[in-house]
Write a structure and sequence with these properties.
Strand content: 15-25%
Largest sheet: 7 strands, mixed
Radius of gyration: 21 Å
Oligomer: single chain
């Protein structure tokens, strides 16, 4: 049977897959089973930070595979401890809880906020406030945190204790807090699935100040924006923020499943023995992969990410058929006169893989994509967008 037929027969039908069977890749080039070449501007939805089959990443993973592929969290492992140290030293955070995915890293953040509030103020202070158009995961609780009704319809009843406000509406947060005391606020600084919407820095600073004044745990979901994606190691560093909790995953391990929930001096001791756990969290192979990724995201490399972002933003802003461009770093969305899905298909037909987010085309290339490939891809995108 062909791969498509096997998939249809044996894999749950939760994905509307494109008619492409991926076979192998190197860097930002990927090839299907028929040998057709594509320039990848999606990186597995911001996961393959250094592209496919990256040499340094492969070496780190292979070396660790030859030592220890798994250990339960009953014991210490060097890769997890070293990665936690690196993340804390690079961010100013104090402690890390490792999991397997973005949803799990957000679940841990919610647990930290609720336990912090319950320990200090009592069990009635549990509400978590998020933003409309947000996306925080597909577990029942992270769906409850997601501010998009389309994801809620089929899975009622959702986990209680969540409320949504519009970005920029501090008054709405204050009103909620006065009625049902708020334990934590969870935001994305760039709402990826919500349409690549970049939050206003002045309002985010105001939000942080309000949370600090009310002792509300201020949390930032960096599942997609983290790990160099926005031109800094984490997006909150672009904003000059000091969050209480930061969640991340996706690009952290460059293609292997790893989530991390980072806590600052305020929240570092909230989780004690037995309060949380994960069988695979902190897996030594995944942590070795992540160490390889994070170690290379230094100032010089991140400056290159910003330069590529500037090139793409300028090219798109001056492109026929493009009406709006938004984003930060190499997390870019653009609205087109043609339907986004039509542009996406035209790009795919001509060897460039792009994504969509609501009514926009979305670009999430590998952070090290060569300039020559970017320029080739921009030419394909321009032809697809032209009327």
């Amino acid at each position: 049977m062909k791969t498509e037929q096997l998939d249809a027969q044996y894999i749950a039908g939760t994905y509307a897959r494109y008619p492409v069977v991926m076979d192998h890749g190197k860097g930002s080039l990927v090839y299907d089973e028929a040998g057709k070449e594509y320039i990848d501007l999606g990186s597995g939805i911001a996961v393959t930070s250094f592209g496919f089959a990256d040499d340094a990443w492969q070496a780190a993973v292979t070396e660790q595979l030859g030592k220890l592929q798994h250990s339960s969290n009953l014991y210490y492992t060097k890769p997890a401890a070293q990665l936690a140290q690196t993340l804390c030293e690079r961010t100013g955070m104090k402690k890390v809880f490792f999991s397997n995915s973005g949803a799990e890293s957000n679940e841990a953040a919610v647990k930290v906020a609720r336990k912090y509030a319950a320990d200090k103020y009592g069990p009635e202070r549990y509400t978590i406030v998020t933003l409309n158009d947000s996306f925080h995961g597909r577990t029942i609780t992270t769906l409850s945190a997601t501010g998009q009704d389309v994801f809620h319809k089929l899975f009622q009843p959702l986990t209680p204790g969540f409320a949504m406000i519009d970005a920029g509406d501090t008054a709405a947060l204050q009103a909620i807090h006065e009625q049902t005391p708020v334990a934590g606020v969870l935001i994305e600084l760039v709402q990826g699935e919500g349409g690549v919407h970049v939050l206003d820095p002045e309002w985010v600073a105001e939000l942080q100040d309000y949370c600090a004044a009310q002792d509300i745990v201020f949390m930032i979901d960096e599942v997609q924006t983290g790990n160099g994606r926005t031109g800094e190691l984490f997006a909150f560093q672009n904003y000059g923020l000091k969050p209480d909790v930061v969640s991340t995953a996706k690009g952290l391990a460059g293609g292997l499943p790893l989530g991390a929930t980072m806590m600052n001096d305020k929240t570092q001791d909230v989780l004690g023995f037995g309060d949380h756990g994960s069988t695979f969290g902190g897996n030594p192979v995944c942590c070795a992969a992540a160490q390889s990724v994070v170690d290379r995201l230094d100032a010089d490399f991140l400056a290159q990410v910003k330069a590529k972002s500037e090139y793409l933003m300028d090219a798109l802003a001056n492109m026929d058929g493009v009406t709006e461009v938004s984003g930060l770093g190499l997390m870019i969305g653009f609205r087109t006169e043609k339907p986004a899905v039509e542009v996406q298909q035209l790009c795919r037909d001509n060897g460039v893989l792009v994504l969509t987010a609501k009514d926009k085309v979305r670009l999430l290339p590998a952070l090290n994509i060569p300039q020559e490939l970017l320029e080739r891809a921009v030419g394909v995108i321009a032809a697809a967008c032209a009327s």
